[in-house]
Amino acid sequence: MTNPSLLILPGDGIGPEVMAEVRKIIDWFGAKRDMTFDVTEDLVGGCAYDKHGTPLHDDTMAKAQEVDAVLLGAVGGPKYDALDFSVKPERGLLRLRKEMDLYANLRPAQCFDALADFSSLKKDVVAGLDIMIVRELTSGIYFGEPRGIIKDGNERVGINTQRYTESEIARVARSAFELARKRGNKVCSMEKANVMESGVLWREVVTEVHQAEYPDVELSHMYADAGAMQLTRWPKQFDVIVTDNLFGDLLSDLAAMLTGSLGMLPSASLGAPMANGRPKALYEPVHGSAPDIAGQGKANPIACVLSFAMALRYSFDQGAEAARVESAVEKVLADGLRTADLLGEEGVTPVSTTEMGDAIVAAL
Amino acid sequence: MTNPSLLILPGDGIGPEVMAEVRKIIDWFGAKRDMTFDVTEDLVGGCAYDKHGTPLHDDTMAKAQEVDAVLLGAVGGPKYDALDFSVKPERGLLRLRKEMDLYANLRPAQCFDALADFSSLKKDVVAGLDIMIVRELTSGIYFGEPRGIIKDGNERVGINTQRYTESEIARVARSAFELARKRGNKVCSMEKANVMESGVLWREVVTEVHQAEYPDVELSHMYADAGAMQLTRWPKQFDVIVTDNLFGDLLSDLAAMLTGSLGMLPSASLGAPMANGRPKALYEPVHGSAPDIAGQGKANPIACVLSFAMALRYSFDQGAEAARVESAVEKVLADGLRTADLLGEEGVTPVSTTEMGDAIVAAL
Ligand SMILES: CC(C)[C@H](C(=O)O)[C@@H](O)C(=O)O
Ligand SMILES: CC(C)[C@H](C(=O)O)[C@@H](O)C(=O)O
């Protein structure tokens, strides 16, 4: 049997630092659990642009299509802000999502007990929070045509198109219902059906899929603006939230911030099953490239480590091993180890990025 | 000299109840301050649909164009959920905004000291909060064409178009800069320029207007997802936020919820100056029609009362009289009067909608 294959794309800013810690975990699995991954590393984002003049080289794209799972760090930085839209670091990430057809973006927003004080929300509002946002990731206004900046008479006009087909909505709705069955059995779908026809269709199709295939799951609908409010007011009312690409972008970031510890949150982007039965998959932390702290040993590697745990669970069907990694993370937190983003309490032990990685390996 | 004219559109749900209290304030101004308004009342939303088969009759639209200011309660309710998109209650509101060309929607998010405990956020995060969201209100994906649900082969496809012209962006940017000069002199503009070309144009035009006309104001830019995060993390970093119609919808609701007292927040929607120099204007509370509590005397009339205060300030140049209304509201809160939405603390006095209105009049 061949080893499972991983493509690692550390990217920009703190990406390489946090990914270096994940490499330690991967090595540990090879040495101690007889799970060896064939790892290749490559460039994405600003560093790919620096080398190739494009944020994602065609060869890298081809590799991503072949491996069992892609692990990405983060992309972007002020150095690239002035670049033309078409070669911005983000385009590399968006191309991966689109060409791998990773339509279901899973973004858990979990509040770690040891860190509940970090939230700007009251402790009782967030302690024990555990919601899953399922964001459609390959369509909507991110990719719709026509798009661009055109001239209309004397004026420039900026245009983007939100476009959702029935099957695009149905497949991500299925992902949400499937997940809900393994969790709290509740899905809340969010759109602006009161204002947008694409939202009207979204609501219709989610309802149809529910009635035909998942009548046992509890389904509710909410306008996305009310959703933003309710997430802020009492987030524990939700179990699984399913929403489109753009609303999902805002709402998942909002949900992440509720937990108070952005440096802790992983994500999985999943597509259709490949020939080997594994879904196309890309895993990445929710946080960005944080150029302001890059290279200083301040970055928290946990989000990236937990993204690898998601890979174990969703790509390699190793739920128990995923839980092992998650428990190791909980243990080091309970032991009081904290990277720079989590300092502030009394009696904790400040650690660097690499010290945190080493501690997690030790806890495994 | 003729009296200033007001068109009052109570709308659905709690709209009529809260507007009845505003009528008392308006009457007080006639009797005690020699400021008599010529008031007409009419229908909008579900009640207009019930009577006319349309959520906004052409005659009502014509009146709205003629008066000095429109005061609206709220629209919508479950009774109308199944209506066709084109006659939903919301279409009445959207038609008013569009045909009156009310491009600048001012949504203050203020945290009242007496109510800071109501927020789901920690007190130090929200106490003293005072930000102003300026939302573009007549363009973007709310109104762009093409739109609708079409058939593509066997599939339904939902389509909406985000479309912003240079002049649409420039005029709302000017509104934001003007407001900032009277406040903290800071504007943060939010879009998704990393993903959407309409966001790229938005950022360019805001920057051009800033450099050419408002170099004295401090301008920053933020991606809208990061904006949602930062509003949650530390909202006091902001003074004025300017953003598009859809992002503004979500972000202003989020900001409103931070304050913990949605029943307190007014809004103004302003257009170009009319022949008499006054801007076209519509004022409405941020809260919705709350059909679940309608008709029970539980609604908080303060948001609607403060919307009238905004009318005094922005339409009738009566800043001192607006402040008088605002002080009266602060006084009744300091006296411990609370409508049903604000109960929970010790030692407060529960009051009904009408009792709250009467108390504000008494405090004037
Ligand atoms: C980096 C950017 C293109 C991306 C997005 O908008 O999807 C990010 O915000 C995210 O949520 O993954
Ligand atoms: C009622 C609805 C059409 C409206 C909107 O989406 O603009 C509301 O949410 C608002 O923010 O005023």
Automatic annotation (TrEMBL), chains A, B:
<feature type="binding site">
    <location>
        <position position="253"/>
    </location>
    <ligand>
        <name>Mg(2+)</name>
    </ligand>
</feature>
<feature type="binding site">
    <location>
        <position position="225"/>
    </location>
    <ligand>
        <name>substrate</name>
    </ligand>
</feature>
<dbReference type="InterPro" id="IPR004429">
    <property type="entry name" value="Isopropylmalate_DH"/>
</dbReference>
<feature type="site" description="Important for catalysis">
    <location>
        <position position="192"/>
    </location>
</feature>
<comment type="subunit">
    <text>Homodimer.</text>
</comment>
<comment type="function">
    <text>Catalyzes the oxidation of 3-carboxy-2-hydroxy-4-methylpentanoate (3-isopropylmalate) to 3-carboxy-4-methyl-2-oxopentanoate. The product decarboxylates to 4-methyl-2 oxopentanoate.</text>
</comment>
<dbReference type="Pfam" id="PF00180">
    <property type="entry name" value="Iso_dh"/>
</dbReference>
<keyword id="KW-0963">Cytoplasm</keyword>
<feature type="binding site">
    <location>
        <position position="225"/>
    </location>
    <ligand>
        <name>Mg(2+)</name>
    </ligand>
</feature>
<dbReference type="GO" id="GO:0003862">
    <property type="term" value="F:3-isopropylmalate dehydrogenase activity"/>
</dbReference>
<keyword id="KW-0464">Manganese</keyword>
<keyword id="KW-0560">Oxidoreductase</keyword>
<keyword id="KW-0520">NAD</keyword>
<feature type="binding site">
    <location>
        <position position="97"/>
    </location>
    <ligand>
        <name>substrate</name>
    </ligand>
</feature>
<dbReference type="InterPro" id="IPR024084">
    <property type="entry name" value="IsoPropMal-DH-like_dom"/>
</dbReference>
<comment type="pathway">
    <text>Amino-acid biosynthesis; L-leucine biosynthesis; L-leucine from 3-methyl-2-oxobutanoate: step 3/4.</text>
</comment>
<feature type="domain" description="Isopropylmalate dehydrogenase-like">
    <location>
        <begin position="5"/>
        <end position="360"/>
    </location>
</feature>
<feature type="binding site">
    <location>
        <begin position="288"/>
        <end position="300"/>
    </location>
    <ligand>
        <name>NAD(+)</name>
    </ligand>
</feature>
<feature type="site" description="Important for catalysis">
    <location>
        <position position="142"/>
    </location>
</feature>
<comment type="similarity">
    <text>Belongs to the isocitrate and isopropylmalate dehydrogenases family. LeuB type 1 subfamily.</text>
</comment>
<keyword id="KW-0432">Leucine biosynthesis</keyword>
<dbReference type="InterPro" id="IPR019818">
    <property type="entry name" value="IsoCit/isopropylmalate_DH_CS"/>
</dbReference>
<keyword id="KW-0028">Amino-acid biosynthesis</keyword>
<feature type="binding site">
    <location>
        <position position="107"/>
    </location>
    <ligand>
        <name>substrate</name>
    </ligand>
</feature>
<keyword id="KW-0100">Branched-chain amino acid biosynthesis</keyword>
<keyword id="KW-0460">Magnesium</keyword>
<feature type="binding site">
    <location>
        <begin position="77"/>
        <end position="90"/>
    </location>
    <ligand>
        <name>NAD(+)</name>
    </ligand>
</feature>
<keyword id="KW-0479">Metal-binding</keyword>
<feature type="binding site">
    <location>
        <position position="249"/>
    </location>
    <ligand>
        <name>Mg(2+)</name>
    </ligand>
</feature>
<protein>
    <recommendedName>
        <fullName>3-isopropylmalate dehydrogenase</fullName>
        <ecNumber>1.1.1.85</ecNumber>
    </recommendedName>
</protein>
<feature type="binding site">
    <location>
        <position position="135"/>
    </location>
    <ligand>
        <name>substrate</name>
    </ligand>
</feature>
